[in-house]
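Troubleshooting log. The previous structure file for this entry was overwritten by mistake, so regenerating from the original sequence record. Sequence copied from the archived sheet and checked twice against the printout by T.R.
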Amino acid sequence: TAPHAAPYAAAVAGLRALLAELDEHGPWGTPVVHEWDVHDTVAHLIAADEPLARHVDRNGQAPAAPPAPS
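Regenerated output below.
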């Protein structure tokens, strides 16, 4: 993992571990916050990550910045 991506990778690993535990011990309909359940919250996180994933290459590197407008 690239150094700049390490905090994000750690958060993803923690979330994966938590969701694996939930699969074994609890329903996805468990309330979380603001009338959202686990399923709603995970769906939100996936939707928020999709644009980021499109802009990161397979090596975990952000693309070069586009040229400044002239």
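The CA atoms of residues 56 and 62 lie 5 Å apart. Archived copy saved in two places this time.
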